[in-house]
Amino acid sequence: MKPALIYYKENVFSQLDYFQNIRLATSGHTVDERFYLTFNDLSESYNKEEITAIFIMNTLSDNAIELQGLQMAHYIRIITRGEGVGKLPIFLIGSENITELLRLSDYSSILQTPAVELLPYSKEKVKNVIDNIHTYKHLENYEGYLKKTHIPQPNNYLSHHSITSEWSLYQWSKCLNIKSAIENHIERNLYYRYVTSQHPECGDKVTIDYPPYPSESESEKKRILIIDDEADKGWGELYKRLFSHYSNIEVNTLKGFDYASDTKEALLPKVKETIEEKPFEPYHLVLLDIRLLQDDFNKKTDFSSFDVINMLQTLNKGIQIIIVTASNKAWNLQYTLNKNVFAYITKESIFDKSCSKEKLEELLKQSVNAISKSHFLKKVAENEKKILDRLNDKTSTISVPIRKKMLDNIREQIEIAWIMLTNYRFDERYLRYAYLSYYQILELFAEPSPDMYIKIKNKKDIYCEDINGNDINCSEKLKMIYDKTWKGNLIQQTQGTHKEKELELTPYARIGSWMFARTTNRHFMTLLELNSTRNNNTHGGSSTSNIDLEKRLLKMMALIIDFMDNA
């Protein structure tokens, strides 16, 4: 039985016959990989023949100041959780005294833990310890070791966000039973093993509860775009597995872009190209990380992802965006909320008390909800753009002041309606508010006024000016259509300001007369349906389902586009 000696270069101790020599592995790309391979050699020796103790040279690299021997000692304790070979007494050999080690090494806490001794660079002293090795105690209490230990965050990361992203990928992959490429890195990393020692993982099998997907849109493929600088490091694979539960959801990552070397000037055109690549298979949701480019890690705000948000909303503000990031900074959250980003999901921190299951289910819930809303909101955004384009054209050609004011009021109602729709995800009532805003746009076209388009003549006839400036009698046609569904008057008497009876057109009569006189697409039955829905939402009649209300709002926008062409 011999003690083991872990060393980097041949020295006076490695040439002695006292030890089972274990040379530090050099084939690993990182310190942790080299430690892991060396630990495997140590474990193999321990299993083959009983090792009595572990001696480690303080210097295990070409840079003596690194003092990696102290780090190796922690590695043995933590990776074994103080069991087996990890219980053996550890002796650190070097020319440095304890004061120097405490000052020079971030891993010097090992010297204050049980069953660890510091030895001078002396064959006689080391030989004396070996001769009396039976008198040295083994580690009896791993928790006692942990209480006196501090393992610093690795300094080869751009930021704490990189660690959080790796940890979250590892934990979420385990939930989804994915053999992630990050797994070996995490399980061999001293810092992560230290953290998991303090926060033991639950061995229970996790079952993800998938939210149902709305059946109304089941037949159409829904596409998600991942914009994340670590998409190729496992996140893309994770997202694809996460959403594979849904047969109609397709997940893609941003291709042809190098996050490590490319710039924002290259990023934005690539995102635009990807979004517009397949117009008949559009993207409905973008999962976006906050820090995308190398330059972002030197910033506290104004990240490249903010420019991506602005560009996506310029392309079509109905495309939903969910931020999935390691950043939990309040100002980043506030910025994205101001931009009407659908949700903000933080990746799982090492010290996060919420479990992976909760995080994944929240991401699924928000994503499914966002996609179901996106199909409708993208169409609203497309129609809104058509209306605004026509509005801008008409504003420059219409000279009658009251009619120009009408166009300004329409623009205002469109802005109000979109604000209502962005809040639809929080409260379904906002969809009804948006519907009423768009119906008010129809009414704005048909305001009865001497300088507007519609007039009442002979107290019973409704006239509307056609596109050639001629007054057209619309009463007979409107009455015929109206009486097929409802009985009643198109012109009503109301109490005037001076207690005199005044004549007022019903909303249907006003809008219908415009439709009859100024358009060729006379969808009177559609108008009756829209008018009935408007009345129910205003006066508390029979409720309309959200699906039907969405469809009718889109029908109404099509009417408004037609009306704009003839304003």
UniProtKB/TrEMBL annotation:
Residue intervals of the Inactive Receiver domain: 40-118
Record-linked CDD domains: REC
Protein name per the record: Inactive Receiver domain-containing protein
Organism: Bacteroides xylanisolvens SD CC 1b
